[in-house]
Amino acid sequence: IQALEFLQKNSKKFSFARVKMLPVSGAFHTRLMKSAMQPLSEALESISIQEPLISVYSNVDSKKYRQPEQIQHCLVEQLVSPVKWEQIMHTIYERNKGKKFPYTYEVGPGKQLGAILRSCNLKASRYYSNIEVSEDETNEET
After folding, report:
1. What's the mean pLDDT in 68-73?
2. Cα–Cα–Cα angle for 28, 33, 34, rounded to 5 degrees
3. Residues 36, 8: contact at Cβ < 8 Å?
4. CA–CA gap between residue 61 and residue 49 (Å, rounded)
5. Distance CA 10, CA 94 (A)
6. Confidence band of 25 (pLDDT split at 50, 70, 90)
7. Residue 64 gets which letter from DSSP?
8. 50-56, long-range: CB < 8 A, 24+ apart
9. Which stretch is the leader sequence (predicted)?
Protein backbone atom coordinates (compact mmCIF):
# COMPACT_ATOMS: atom_id res chain seq x y z
CA ILE A 1 0.00 0.00 0.00
CA GLN A 2 2.85 2.40 0.80
CA ALA A 3 4.31 1.99 -2.68
CA LEU A 4 0.93 2.68 -4.27
CA GLU A 5 0.39 5.76 -2.10
CA PHE A 6 3.88 6.99 -3.08
CA LEU A 7 3.05 6.57 -6.77
CA GLN A 8 -0.26 8.33 -6.29
CA LYS A 9 1.38 11.31 -4.52
CA ASN A 10 4.11 11.53 -7.17
CA SER A 11 1.93 10.86 -10.22
CA LYS A 12 2.84 14.13 -11.96
CA LYS A 13 6.55 13.49 -11.43
CA PHE A 14 6.18 10.12 -13.20
CA SER A 15 3.86 11.59 -15.88
CA PHE A 16 0.92 9.35 -14.99
CA ALA A 17 -2.24 10.53 -16.74
CA ARG A 18 -4.44 9.26 -13.92
CA VAL A 19 -4.00 7.29 -10.71
CA LYS A 20 -6.93 5.59 -9.03
CA MET A 21 -6.90 3.20 -6.10
CA LEU A 22 -9.27 0.33 -6.85
CA PRO A 23 -11.56 -0.81 -4.02
CA VAL A 24 -10.72 -4.52 -4.18
CA SER A 25 -10.44 -7.02 -1.36
CA GLY A 26 -7.44 -8.90 -2.76
CA ALA A 27 -4.64 -8.95 -5.31
CA PHE A 28 -6.75 -11.02 -7.69
CA HIS A 29 -5.33 -11.89 -11.12
CA THR A 30 -1.73 -11.44 -9.91
CA ARG A 31 1.01 -13.83 -8.77
CA LEU A 32 0.30 -12.69 -5.21
CA MET A 33 -2.68 -15.09 -5.26
CA LYS A 34 -0.50 -18.15 -5.97
CA SER A 35 -0.98 -19.55 -2.45
CA ALA A 36 -4.76 -19.70 -3.05
CA MET A 37 -4.46 -21.89 -6.16
CA GLN A 38 -4.17 -25.26 -4.39
CA PRO A 39 -7.07 -24.67 -1.95
CA LEU A 40 -9.28 -23.49 -4.82
CA SER A 41 -8.31 -26.50 -6.92
CA GLU A 42 -9.21 -28.84 -4.04
CA ALA A 43 -12.53 -27.08 -3.50
CA LEU A 44 -13.39 -27.34 -7.20
CA GLU A 45 -12.49 -31.05 -7.22
CA SER A 46 -15.06 -31.60 -4.45
CA ILE A 47 -17.98 -30.32 -6.54
CA SER A 48 -19.59 -31.41 -9.78
CA ILE A 49 -19.02 -28.94 -12.61
CA GLN A 50 -21.33 -29.30 -15.59
CA GLU A 51 -20.88 -28.13 -19.16
CA PRO A 52 -22.37 -24.62 -19.42
CA LEU A 53 -25.75 -24.25 -21.13
CA ILE A 54 -24.82 -20.77 -22.35
CA SER A 55 -21.58 -19.30 -23.66
CA VAL A 56 -19.13 -18.59 -20.84
CA TYR A 57 -15.69 -17.23 -21.70
CA SER A 58 -12.45 -17.78 -19.82
CA ASN A 59 -10.44 -14.82 -18.54
CA VAL A 60 -7.32 -16.96 -18.96
CA ASP A 61 -7.40 -17.67 -22.70
CA SER A 62 -10.53 -15.76 -23.88
CA LYS A 63 -12.07 -18.98 -25.23
CA LYS A 64 -15.44 -20.55 -24.42
CA TYR A 65 -15.54 -22.93 -21.50
CA ARG A 66 -16.65 -26.34 -22.72
CA GLN A 67 -15.47 -29.30 -20.64
CA PRO A 68 -15.70 -29.44 -16.82
CA GLU A 69 -11.95 -30.22 -16.56
CA GLN A 70 -11.16 -27.13 -18.65
CA ILE A 71 -13.43 -25.01 -16.46
CA GLN A 72 -11.75 -26.23 -13.27
CA HIS A 73 -8.27 -25.61 -14.67
CA CYS A 74 -9.11 -22.14 -15.98
CA LEU A 75 -10.82 -21.05 -12.75
CA VAL A 76 -7.67 -21.90 -10.80
CA GLU A 77 -5.40 -20.19 -13.35
CA GLN A 78 -7.69 -17.16 -13.32
CA LEU A 79 -6.52 -16.37 -9.78
CA VAL A 80 -3.03 -15.48 -11.02
CA SER A 81 -3.69 -14.49 -14.64
CA PRO A 82 -4.54 -11.03 -15.96
CA VAL A 83 -8.08 -10.62 -17.25
CA LYS A 84 -8.19 -10.62 -21.05
CA TRP A 85 -11.17 -8.30 -21.48
CA GLU A 86 -10.21 -7.05 -24.92
CA GLN A 87 -9.51 -10.54 -26.26
CA ILE A 88 -12.81 -11.82 -24.83
CA MET A 89 -14.67 -8.93 -26.45
CA HIS A 90 -13.12 -9.77 -29.83
CA THR A 91 -14.10 -13.43 -29.40
CA ILE A 92 -17.68 -12.69 -28.34
CA TYR A 93 -18.38 -10.11 -31.04
CA GLU A 94 -16.65 -11.74 -33.99
CA ARG A 95 -19.35 -12.00 -36.67
CA ASN A 96 -19.75 -12.94 -40.28
CA LYS A 97 -20.83 -10.00 -42.42
CA GLY A 98 -24.54 -9.32 -42.05
CA LYS A 99 -24.99 -11.25 -38.80
CA LYS A 100 -26.49 -9.14 -35.99
CA PHE A 101 -24.65 -8.43 -32.77
CA PRO A 102 -26.17 -9.59 -29.47
CA TYR A 103 -27.64 -7.12 -27.01
CA THR A 104 -25.17 -6.50 -24.20
CA TYR A 105 -26.10 -5.32 -20.70
CA GLU A 106 -23.66 -4.16 -18.05
CA VAL A 107 -25.35 -4.32 -14.66
CA GLY A 108 -23.77 -2.54 -11.71
CA PRO A 109 -21.80 0.58 -10.93
CA GLY A 110 -19.67 2.00 -13.72
CA LYS A 111 -19.46 1.54 -17.47
CA GLN A 112 -15.99 0.05 -17.93
CA LEU A 113 -17.08 -2.93 -20.01
CA GLY A 114 -18.99 -0.59 -22.31
CA ALA A 115 -15.89 1.55 -22.77
CA ILE A 116 -13.82 -1.54 -23.60
CA LEU A 117 -16.49 -2.73 -26.04
CA ARG A 118 -16.56 0.69 -27.78
CA SER A 119 -12.79 0.61 -28.21
CA CYS A 120 -12.84 -2.98 -29.53
CA ASN A 121 -15.95 -2.97 -31.70
CA LEU A 122 -17.86 0.24 -32.35
CA LYS A 123 -20.64 -1.55 -34.27
CA ALA A 124 -21.26 -4.01 -31.43
CA SER A 125 -21.29 -1.17 -28.89
CA ARG A 126 -24.49 0.15 -30.49
CA TYR A 127 -26.26 -2.80 -28.85
CA TYR A 128 -24.81 -2.03 -25.40
CA SER A 129 -26.82 -0.73 -22.43
CA ASN A 130 -25.75 0.07 -18.88
CA ILE A 131 -28.07 -0.63 -15.97
CA GLU A 132 -26.73 1.39 -13.05
CA VAL A 133 -27.00 -0.31 -9.66
CA SER A 134 -25.34 1.33 -6.69
CA GLU A 135 -24.08 -0.49 -3.61
CA ASP A 136 -26.82 1.21 -1.56
CA GLU A 137 -29.52 -0.32 -3.77
CA THR A 138 -27.93 -3.76 -3.48
CA ASN A 139 -27.67 -3.55 0.32
CA GLU A 140 -31.32 -2.49 0.67
CA GLU A 141 -32.50 -5.79 -0.80
CA THR A 142 -30.45 -8.02 1.53
Report:
1. 95
2. 145
3. no
4. 19
5. 41
6. confident
7. B
8. 55/92
9. none
